[in-house]
Amino acid sequence: MPQGDYKKLADEELVFRYAQRNEQAAFTTLFERYGHLVFGVCFKYLKDPEAAKDAMQQIFIKLLEDLKRFKIEIFKPWLYQVSKNYCFMQLRKTVYEINNDTDAAADMEFEDGWHHKVEQEQLLDSLEISIEELGDEQRICIKLFYLDKLSYADITARTGWTMMQVKSAIQNGKRNLKMKIEAKRNVNT
């Protein structure tokens, strides 16, 4: 199919052609169609054109794998949510790095609750690490349910797993996350 003909295809057809047939031109068309929108979302949250450009590139690099892993029914809102989540993770990392670079004693003098904020950041980091340690099914379902705010039915449609598999993965994933976080806390205390 000539490159120009890809521009006539719907997003979901492009996703299918890339994910199932490995047609690189379909992915290129999605990038051309949505690269500027992803950049705009990233710029809105990151407030820096270079950081937004880097984030856009990282998101599309991640899409190379994600489009093959997930069943995506409506591409544009899914891409928006992925972009937003990526920016939130970058902002959270930045806040954590700033907190680690500041003089703790000086901050405690001027900011009530500084200690609480550090604990929250440590808990979020522990949660992020623990999620990545889960098995594939649990990790994917936990991320889709809690981060992307998808329903059980949406997760079932996107992943191809049964409703029972999705519910089980979320329930077991929550239990495993709790155990992992508690174990990390016990090591740190």
Descriptive account of the structure:
The protein is mostly helical. It folds into two domains: 1-101, RNA polymerase sigma factor, region 2, helix turn helix motif (Rna Polymerase Sigma Factor, Chain: A); 123-189, Orthogonal Bundle (Arc Repressor Mutant, subunit A), CATH 1.10.10.10. Helices cover 84% and strands 0% of the residues. It is built from ten helices and no strands. α2 crosses α3 (24-46) and α3 packs across α4. 22% of the residues are buried. Residues 102-112 have low confidence and may be disordered.
Give unreliable regions as ranges. Answer: 102-112
The largest sheet is: none
The number of E-state strands comes to 0
Q: Remind me, CATH topology of the largest domain?
A: Rna Polymerase Sigma Factor, Chain: A
* Average pLDDT for all residues: 83
What count of helical segments does DSSP give? 10
Percent helix: over 70%
Q: What general form does the structure show?
A: flat
Distance between the termini: 61 Å
Determine the structural class based on helices, strands and strand pairing.
mainly alpha
Count of discrete domains? 2
Examine the secondary-structure arrangement and name the CATH architecture of the largest domain. Answer: Orthogonal Bundle
